[in-house]
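Table S2 (text version). Query chain:
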Amino acid sequence: QVQLVESGGGLVQPGGSLRLSCAASGSAFSLYGMGWYRQAPEKQRELVATITSGGSTDYADSVKGRFTISRDNAKNTVYLQMNNLKPEDTAVYYCNAGRLRLGRYFDYWGQGTQVTVSS
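Corresponding structure-token output:
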């Protein structure tokens, strides 16, 4: 079992920066692939960025060059550095942990943190 707690959201002006953190409890954090998703009002949840257990990263086209995902396995934490924020980045951001083990896929979600980009 993994519990995820996001933090770092808030209100920021366009062009500003925020860093989201996702702290994980439980064991074997380093074996999980981690991801950040977001959901804007009246829209479906969408993938923002992922990082594998080996450290490979991938990003949605809309955030490439502006967002950076990273992980610190010693701290059981994954980060999302968001720069040059735009109003369309406004959403609830969710942390996800996933792992395939013994033929089953284990999938966990945090409660979300609100990011609002507005002047």
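Notes on Table S2: The first strand starts at residue 3 and ends at 7. The CA atoms of residues 56 and 111 lie 25 Å apart.
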